[in-house]
Amino acid sequence: MKKRMDYCKAVLFVGLLLMQTAMLQPASIYAQAKLADYERASGLRERLQGLAINIADRANWIGITSRFWYRKSVKDGNQFVLVDAETLEKKPAFDHERLAASLSAAAGQKYTALKFPFNTITFVDNEKAIEFFIADSPNGQPPTSRFGPDGTRWKCELSDYSCKKLVADAERQRGQTQAGGPPRGIPGPQYDRPSDPKASPDGKWEAVVNGYNVYVRAKGKKDGFPLSLDGSEGNYYALASIVWSPDSTKLAAFRVRSGYHRKIQYVESSPGDQLQPKYSAIDYAKPGDALDIPQPVLFDVGTRKQLVIDNALFPNPYDLSRLEWRKDNRAVTFEYNQRGHQVYRVIEVDAATGSARAVISEEPKTFFCYSGKKYRNDLADGKEIIWMSERDGWNHLYLYDGATGKVKNQITKGNWLVRAVDKVDDEKRQIWFEASGMYPGKDPYLIHYNRINFDGTGLTALTGADANHTVVVSSDRKYYVDTWSRVDLATTSELRRTSDQKVLMELERGDIQELLKTGWRAPEVFTSMGRDGKTEIWGVIIRPTNFDPAKKYPVIENIYAGPQGSFVPKTFSTQAGMQSLAELGFIVVQIDGMGTSNRSKAFHDVAWKNLGDAGFPDRILWHKAVAAKYPYYDVSRVGIYGTSAGGQSSLGGLLFHPEFYKVCVSACGCHDNRMDKIWWNEQWMGWPLGQEYAAASNADNAGKLQGKLL
Known about the structure:
This protein is an alpha+beta fold. The chain contains twelve helices and 45 strands. Strands 39-40-42-41-43-44-45 form a seven-stranded mixed sheet, with helices on both faces. Strands 15, 16, 17, 20 and 21 form a five-stranded antiparallel sheet that branches.
């Protein structure tokens, strides 16, 4: 509850600041925003909660069975439902009343049949029991960390509904990872422990690192023999990188030349368990930092021969992925991401000769989007490879001949893009994938599910409704649950048969009649032409529940323009955060401008070495198009707010477009890309660091500030 109250307070403060600074003339403040507006905004989330019923969450298939469960909203709470796809039987997943009573007694808390302290369950013991987490947070909603839910795991028997606490989730107590995104593949010496030798597949040998070099010893013995002598403190072999060949005769490892290991220092000023502050540090590489340089090396255990691989094909790595052996022992593979992200290769090294070749090489003029648009699937031990690429201007799948490195055929094609691969069926030579933009005239961001053959034939649409889809398929692929909605269309969930896509059962259809009675209206989806005069820019408009078209409304834009994704909501919800802000007398909007992802490569490339652009030319045109259609949309009074990269962009609105944006609230902004995490910023701003970083820097351009800023 406290988190939600703090969130509401923050939203109200944004509105208060915007009104008190420049958005409204003083004489009109009290006319436009009264105490009742703040009270309505403050209680909006709670008032709207639970009014949309029969809204189904994502379905969850139970192991290899034909059964699945899901949670749905009902009046005053939620209910868990169990369905059998074979028999089409649908029933409560358990006795909600009995479970609430038993859990309340065991946990010493009061729970009801419609308000459990968990959102998800796991069927265990052949469906004779369920397990779930009860969160540590006071509001009972289980937040998740990278290790899983934060809380305590419970188990309840479905025979007698006895419940018992299992073990507290200690996962979150495990050490820290490198902050700011996906870890790089290069392991360091801090991961090496003498007690963690690498055992060979046949169980006869162990590989260890001793004095920065690779040693091999008989299983269980202390003495061994060296395979390398060239390791040193600054150029060490990393135990975590060692991989044995399947036949246990060879191994591969990285010898790592140390770079600069930047530390970020933290002070916890007021810890809960002691009076004095606590100090800590994390690894945090920044753009331009000297990185560890890995060098792959092969070893033959029998002959003790060492092969240092020529790095001509991977001379300047940002990252080398982990080494992987072919199952027939013929070669080792890894992926090379060049510093600056303009070369990306799949490398294969011949185990006998140590010679390296590029099986696949991507060399775009701008960036290879390795965070979000990289996919590789090796078939038949690398004889074929499915690969994702934007080389034709759209994100598509290609089938490679692994032996020759030639493209056998392009699997998907057209002016639309593959969003993700869900399943590759090697036997049927089919791919199940998500795509957007396949239907001209429709929202190009909506996700649809499809199936296609490896040779590009047999494209089959698994979803049809003009909506954003989530599909969950049974283990045998005979059935799937299709759950779909839009921001302006309540959620529907259906059980379908894969063979003919027939709807076997409508599981749930959202009912929002009670929600509409409050005055709430769904966001309006609005499009206009972007800066090039031909590309549609998509956004949403949110109006207050007491909207009066006879009034003039100032506008607030919620911005996040990170190139790693697209951010305008596409699925149904009350949008309570932005709606609360609108209640104070504003129209609130969110827009995806050029430079964000999930459109064409050209659309995305606008961000290249130009994060300061943030799609503002498209956003401003969009605002003006709305104002041209709706006289109540006051384009002379536009404010903007955002967090993180949105914090950078929101302030950029004031610095680079002060003629349009008048007020900004910037939270946790990355105001200079040289100060932030390396993986995100070098991905879009490039390497080596150039004048582009200064040009996009809010710090370097702070002297241009006009308008009002928090």
